[in-house]
Amino acid sequence: MILTLFSVLLFLFLWKTKGLFFSLWAGFTLLLGELVLPQIVKHIELRPRPLDKLISISGYSFPSGHAAGSTAFYGLTALILILFFLKKAWQKWIIGILAFLLISLIMFSRVYLGVHYPSDVLAGFSLSASLLSFSFYFLFKSPILQRS
């Protein structure tokens, strides 16, 4: 729920600062990485969760939606800041390190709580990291961006 709220705020911020195309691109990337792709893979794979969980949670285990969602949101936000807003190298390094640490802590927490296997969180991370790579490739190759 929090990532959804932050995603909407990011969308509105990008619309105001970078325009509609850029905000739609980011919104579509987040929608795919946070919700659509992880759910599609979950319902293809149908892997049950580990049995000794510290918290009660339902649904399928593979891939981790939290790992995919946090990678999509924090990764996208960090990359946008690094590529389009921050000028100083030290600021870019700090944002990159903080995003990596936050994503890593979320991934670790899912395994620690016993609701995912390590392969689940690695798959969620990989799914969204791949999506981000493809999405940024599309952004930089799009004719709309070339004109602006």
TrEMBL record:
CDD domains attached to this UniProt entry: PAP2_like_2
Membrane-traversing stretches: 67-86, 93-115, 121-140
Keywords: Membrane, Transmembrane, Transmembrane helix
Domain Phosphatidic acid phosphatase type 2/haloperoxidase: 26-136
Pfam families named in the record: PAP2
Protein name as catalogued: Phosphatidic acid phosphatase type 2/haloperoxidase domain-containing protein
Organism encoding this protein: Listeria aquatica FSL S10-1188
